[in-house]
Amino acid sequence: MSTVRDATYELLRRHGLTTIFGNPGSNELPFLAGMPEDFRYILGLHEGVVAGMADGYAQATRRPALVNLHAASGSGNAMGALTNSWYAHTPLVITAGQQVRSTIGQEVMLSNVDAVSLPRPLVKFSAEPASARDVVRTMGQAIHAAVLEPAGPVYVSIPYDDWAHETGPEDAHLGERTVETAGELSDGQLADLVAALDAAARPVLVLGPDVDSARGNDDAVRLAERLGAPVWVAPSASRCPFPTSHAAFRGVLPASVAGITGLLSGHDLILVVGAPVFRYHQYEPGEYLPGRHCPVADHLRPG
Amino acid sequence: MSTVRDATYELLRRHGLTTIFGNPGSNELPFLAGMPEDFRYILGLHEGVVAGMADGYAQATRRPALVNLHAASGSGNAMGALTNSWYAHTPLVITAGQQVRSTIGQEVMLSNVDAVSLPRPLVKFSAEPASARDVVRTMGQAIHAAVLEPAGPVYVSIPYDDWAHETGPEDAHLGERTVETAGELSDGQLADLVAALDAAARPVLVLGPDVDSARGNDDAVRLAERLGAPVWVAPSASRCPFPTSHAAFRGVLPASVAGITGLLSGHDLILVVGAPVFRYHQYEPGEYLPGRHCPVADHLRPG
Amino acid sequence: MSTVRDATYELLRRHGLTTIFGNPGSNELPFLAGMPEDFRYILGLHEGVVAGMADGYAQATRRPALVNLHAASGSGNAMGALTNSWYAHTPLVITAGQQVRSTIGQEVMLSNVDAVSLPRPLVKFSAEPASARDVVRTMGQAIHAAVLEPAGPVYVSIPYDDWAHETGPEDAHLGERTVETAGELSDGQLADLVAALDAAARPVLVLGPDVDSARGNDDAVRLAERLGAPVWVAPSASRCPFPTSHAAFRGVLPASVAGITGLLSGHDLILVVGAPVFRYHQYEPGEYLPGRHCPVADHLRPG
Amino acid sequence: MSTVRDATYELLRRHGLTTIFGNPGSNELPFLAGMPEDFRYILGLHEGVVAGMADGYAQATRRPALVNLHAASGSGNAMGALTNSWYAHTPLVITAGQQVRSTIGQEVMLSNVDAVSLPRPLVKFSAEPASARDVVRTMGQAIHAAVLEPAGPVYVSIPYDDWAHETGPEDAHLGERTVETAGELSDGQLADLVAALDAAARPVLVLGPDVDSARGNDDAVRLAERLGAPVWVAPSASRCPFPTSHAAFRGVLPASVAGITGLLSGHDLILVVGAPVFRYHQYEPGEYLPGRHCPVADHLRPG
Prior knowledge:
4 copies of one chain form a homotetramer.
Chain A: H1 4-14, E1 19-22, H2 29-32, E2 40-43, H3 47-61, E3 65-70, H4 71-88, E4 92-98, E5 125-127, H5 135-147, E6 154-159, H6 169-176, H7 187-199, E7 203-207, H8 209-213, H9 217-227, E8 231-233, E9 249-252, H10 257-264, E10 269-273
Parallel strand pairs in A: 1-2, 1-3, 3-4, 4-6, 5-6, 7-8, 7-10, 8-9
Helix pairs in contact in A: 1-5, 1-6, 3-4
């Protein structure tokens, strides 16, 4: 059985975040107790120094850096340094240890009440997962947000008792997925995409509202006809990306894991354009489509 | 076995909040499915009307009113009306149904992302419990905050899957406690306090930092000597309220449930002055002292 | 001619805030350039130390302490220490130097963009005056908020070019007024109030909505009859505190400075109960009533 | 003499925002009193309807739409509808009328206290200019933020007395500039850039820190040598984009309007890469370089 801590270390490793800059306290112990051998911890005795070291390391290596802070007091100590990281566009992934979930609202010692507001407006993304089951995904989103241009610091508050929780099927998917971003498809990205489409025996198109807002509707029809692929509209789409009378049109996907897996499980390639993958509504947990997708937020909520 | 839903209805009943004004959606169903017979639900088809009705009801009855809204969209619809409630000092206790905990961060349909920020700056208190185990206590704090002068609206976002959780020992205590607030002790409050002290065979004093900041140290010594009671300093006190060389001084209380119960369980009355009851640190769950206290935040965190 | 700087120093002097703890930068120069001889500046070379010294000084003297920080970077450096001040209920009045007003939005170097959010949730009150003309009043409100129980830190961001502005008539009033707060009137406060009413030849009552919400309507009638005083309802009241058919009733006050001065200028004592003094609406500047009132917010907006 | 109102209408006209959806109150009168003939105002009697119409109009026209709301109450009424606009990525430019600057802090009727927090987290950008002199630039930034992908709603609170202020030289520049954004330079943008460089007799390069973070340093040297252009480093750069021993290197630009105009005024084309244009520090107002630049924030501050 894997824990949130194991899955988080695996996620960090996949993103090359194996150097941790920090100044921990008691809230951070359950995370650090399991630190694998291939990680190293650079200790600083004041968080201003810790954040400064991490900023320089990220700038020098041109990669994101991981910062491990202690609750509100440690986070507060680092906030002067964050003014520099913000304007230098330095991708810092900051984690702050939180108290035991059930006790935060009591304002026990070292609880970080309203942790999400604390680092604002000096971070691009600030979150405290609402459940232990959402920690790994939140960390994935935070890393993504930090490096997305313009890069910058992000903040995740993680409760003490979350690290020992067992992971679910979502977390396995998170460890396997690859995310690339681009202002425009590069030649290499385009070639990869074409190759994947060429290799697919039973591709399917899922189109979302941004196809319509970008006036890509005619292109969508041409693509569907060229591929000979069926077309679904993404769950809960706010605009119509495809003519519903077209022979390739199959309908609107239901807004649940089980519902989508039931309808799309026969295909060997799913190309989603102009929509999140996927925006669910009903909570009907089930088997995810193998190796293909995981729940994501489709754009970055500020600060 | 009692659930969070049962305990919340019991808490509402104790505070006379048995009339609910609302416009619910799917997120609110697990709460409403178990609505007891002695509650009534006043339905409005737009949240501006719902909040307006509740405001008028609260003003007319001179009591707090309960408002039941749907996620971010329903809460947003009510926010114009909240400008009136804020300046009229109307004690509205607003609950907003949230999506399933593990899916909020994915921004599934009807999730209320960063729910705590949404109603600001038009509420006195805004919270989303970090755990199902903290829902009942959060509701208790919200009701208290709403009616504390100057009164005003408060907001609590409650995840879908919390209502069915089983309650813990904290929740039982919450259902039994009585909270009164006063700018100064009234004659009646004073008489009750004196009577309780007179009746106590083995009273104990717990003194906190506010005794020192209010220069009440000498009064504290006089009180301890008059009562012949031992004196403990509250956990993690930032100031010293009592001379540590005094014969009645017993030490500083440990900052855990189990630790405090171990030390204070022999007494039949605990008088805490100038401190929260209690501010814990270490998470060492245990038996609470019977019928006497529960974890609380000692002052209101704004908005 | 007096400047905002002069009036601010006068306000600080009246509240005994003549010891300043700080670590200034360029934004703070126009304030410090005019520091009077009776003020002293305790310099610390890191804001964590500055805030810590101020906290200890305030706790030891049992009075508020003034902290002078530099923009977002200096404020950020102090935020770790604020976690202690928050829970110790230490009244710290923190000022942060801001850039020139017209350039803040450009995010010039050392601008403190969204300064009001920066110190949250670790302060009771956070503000940046929307105009140089509101700096002195904002500082007065901040001092009041810091010491109002439960006491705590407050934050005011002040633009560089505000200090040299000339003051208006509001600021003179601010320098003269006295504010007292109490959970319940003390014997001394009650005696002062009775003496003032006895000495008044032409008193007038202004009643606000809180008279009604506290069910004080009958008391209000008795008071008006005992005094033989005319009764006005406060501007824009949300509840009716006095029977409008009573012989003493004069109407609802208009919501402007000039309007109120016109109606109340003949009286030698104005007693306002259950309302702000005064909540205006229309901007009709004019002569304020001499020595009696100034515009105030009637309750504290959180954080 | 031009006013902030005139310059704002001119800015709106340049961006095609001549249809206004709104439900105004008294705070909005000074803006609407001067509405030019080529603008039209679509009135709705509830802000939920107003925001809904504007959202549909923006989606149908695939252009941003202007929404004119009234203070906190009107803005609050629209916030339910904003949940849809946020997830539909609809570019809504929302203006909210604010009270007279000097009276906002008093919480006069219809003041929108802490206006910047009110619409969060449902907008991409939220601001209240700190000065009448910054209104037009703020509106320009808001429009840019609304349409920048992923598009979405933005919010600007504008005080009553700002509209009649005279504009300064910055505002004239704002009316003339053109901003384009792209994930990657399109063929047309590239051709325009090459043509401008070919046509320039005395071009100059200004390089910023993002040249270094993108590892573009060698490309920068090649470009400077190809053009035979002198190279300056942008003011207050956090990273070094160009070898300081290179013959083309001229130094680091000073961080003031007057300083930059003094050094760059001989050139007929200024190409700035990897930096804001320009990030000032010292407030030394002066002549801007003709037709070439204006102060900007280099990336979007969230929410």
